[in-house]
Amino acid sequence: MRIRVHVTPRKGVLDPQGQAVAHGLAQLGFDSVGEVRVGKVVDLVLDDLSSVEEALEQGRAMAQKLLANEVVEDFTVEVLD
Amino acid sequence: MRIRVHVTPRKGVLDPQGQAVAHGLAQLGFDSVGEVRVGKVVDLVLDDLSSVEEALEQGRAMAQKLLANEVVEDFTVEVLD
Predict the structure, then answer these.
(1) Which of A42, B13, B20, B73 could form a disulfide with A5 if both were Cys (CB 3.0 to 4.6 A apart)?
(2) What residue of B is the nearest CA neighbor of A8?
(3) Each residue of A3-33: pLDDT tens digit?
(4) Which residues of chain A are within 8 Å of residue B48 when distances are taken between CB atoms?
(5) β-pairing, A33-46 with A2-9?
(6) What ipTM, to 2 d.p.?
(7) Cα–Cα distance between A71 and A13 in angstroms, integer?
(8) Are the Cβ atoms of A33 and B67 closer than 8 angstroms?
(9) What is the 3-state secondary structure (H, E, C) of B6-55?
(10) Model's pTM, two decimal places?
C-alpha cells in the first residue's frame, strides 16, 4: 500500500521559500502569480498493512512523530493505492 | 484560482532525503515502512485566469522554467479550486 503525506506551512506562518518562488516567477514574467506556499510531499510504501484505515492511522502517526512540525506545519495523509 | 504542483524525484534517481526519512521511521519503530520518496509541493494562487486549461498550462510552464529540474525530477500540476 502506498500513502502520501503532505506537509505544508500553517496559515499565518511566514514561508520564505514560497516568497522566493513567487519572486522568481514574477521575474520570469508570470504576472498572474499571487501567494505561493511551498511544502513537502512524502510518498511511502507500507508493507504488511491490510486496511486503508490502518494505513491512514500509521501515516498520521508518522507525520506527528517525524515528518511534520505541528507548531508551524499542517499535514494531510491520503492513500494512493 | 489555486493550483498545486508536485515535484518528485524521478524513478531511479537516488533520494537521500527519502532514505533518511525511511531510516528515521524505522528507528521509531515503524516496521512496515518500505521505500520513501520526498518531494516538494507548491501551492500557487493565480489571479486573472478564467479557465482551468489556462491555469494548468501556466502551472506546467512554471514547473518547467523554475519549480522542477526535469533532469532528475518529475512534476504534476492540478487545479485545486
Answers:
(1) A42
(2) B41
(3) 999 999 999 999 999 999 999 999 999 999 9
(4) 31-32
(5) antiparallel
(6) 0.92
(7) 10
(8) no
(9) EEEECCCCCCHHHHHHHHHHHHCCCCCEEEEEEEEEEEEEECCCCCHHHH
(10) 0.93
